[in-house]
Amino acid sequence: MTAATPASQSPAAPAAAGRREFPFEKRHFEFIARMLHQLAGIALAPHKVEMVYSRLARRLRELNLADFDAYCALLESEDGGNEIGFLVNALTTNLTSFFRESHHFDYLAKTVVPDIRARHGGESSHPRLRLWSAGCSSGQEPYTIAMVLAAAFGPELRRWDAKILATDIDTHMIDTARRGVYPAEVAASIPGPLRDRFTRRLREDGEAKIVVEEDLKRLITFKPLNLLEHWPMKGPFDAIFCRNVLIYFDRAGRTQVIENFARLLEPGGCLFLGHSESLYGVSNRFRQTGPTIYRRLP
Question: Domains (ranges, CATH) in the chain?
């Protein structure tokens, strides 16, 4: 996830109804903002009123709803839970790519993997390895993690009990990620040897696509999860990627999530954040070891 593009108009500004397909009043914005915060922990700044309108107007057309009163009523209804995923997806930009912020994956391969080998490699015939992609969007991040692990460990990975958990609040993104099928052009960011090894080309609906190989998919479990609700996993994790997710939470939400990450990470385990995120003033459970890379303190 990455930040949605802000707009300049506030909810108190004139509605400019003549230019709008649907009337959109301050009470609509405040209701949607309140519900999004209550159910997903996402804080909508007041200046994002035009962004909210433009993205949800498309949703009203898809649902054949007459106005925002009807949409707010849907969110409050028994079927509203099914709409929350669409709401989150509409109001956040699921911008992701393979090997995005590549310095994180260099650090994973050159520093984290050797540390894991040193700590756990001699423990048993099947030493345990756990990583988590929290806010995995359409799946490129966990597949990138899997490629890095498979390349760094080589054939040795077969003797490890290695699993990657990938979660997102949006069930539609989880479905996309689980399929592992993407437009062919997104493969350009994958290093050639890894692209040749872990993906194959196909045509789907007349378009060139790539699909992730099954051996890589088997390393990953995709699950829907709201980071501000109960976490069923027990850990511990060797590393957690949570990039461009915390920017959507208020301070209390960020603190809650980071404290839970600290609880589930191994001492010395790594937390990777997005390029505009920081733990400054949020937690003293970590030390920074690189750009948006943190280690959990003992």
Answer: 17-91 (1.10.155.10), 102-296 (3.40.50.150)
